[in-house]
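Lab notebook: predicted structure, single chain.

Context: the supervisor wants predicted structures on file for every construct in the current expression panel, including those that have not yet been purified. This is the next one on the list. No modifications to the sequence; it matches the entry in the shared construct table.
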Amino acid sequence: MMNLLHWRLLVAVAEAGNISRAAERVGITQSGASQAIAQLEAALGFRVFSRERRHVGVTALGGQVIEHARAMLERLDAIRVLADDSQGLSGGRIRLASFPSVISTLLPGLLRDFQRRHPGIELVALEGTDEEVEDWLAAGTVELGVVLNPAPSRAAAVLGHDAWVAVLPASHPLGRRASESGVTLEELAAQPFILATGGCAVNGQRLVEQAGLHLSDLRVTVRDWASACVLVREGMGVALVPESTLPDEQRGLRVMPLVPVIHREFGLVCSDAGKASRPVQALLEGLLCKDGSPGNR
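Prediction complete. Output recorded below exactly as produced.
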């Protein structure tokens, strides 16, 4: 069964000349993209792409299919702009602020999906610390902000959550125990410590202090989570980072759960200007539908 994703994927592959880059653009895995292309070619009865070692080309018939797919997607965007016009949404702008780790992980898919549904609305993403995001929301500089651990009274739209984990050199004594045993904040605080802030006031040092402890040997402070993991791999100390920021390559590292578990939660919060913005409400309604509310049925 061919659907809109298949056509978007075809156009993306033709433009990128590469399946993995096209898959990233449309928001699916490379294996999912390869499977979708195979399904579509089977349904059509001919090959759309010619595979070479480092490049994906387009066959003669495939080129005609892609022209039709591109025209179809353009018509769909035009229909969506027309729909937005009828609701007074076109020409609107949303300024959305977040701290770095969320901008690079949770937000790209959200913003891409929203802009597909509402091509007439401009989305501007601003990066700052969690404290700067709060200041921008209070001042009305932005309509939406990603807030860390929002209070229930703020009626935040939850984007996701993750847990804090300990990152140790692979040979560290604390890492020799079973993973399910975990590591406590007290144990980490007594070790040579690499502090990564991630541009957030809520970081490893804050968690340690909130537990009534202190870092006995703070070796280095860095902003980037990845930099902390590199220093840990070099044996300079241990670190406490959010699970979602762990590097793909963990060779030389031992990752242990924190005991007891401490979570971070991310929520989208409106400023006063955002509460009165129709484009912002359209974005939030889209989030609710995605989460399985009645609007998604």
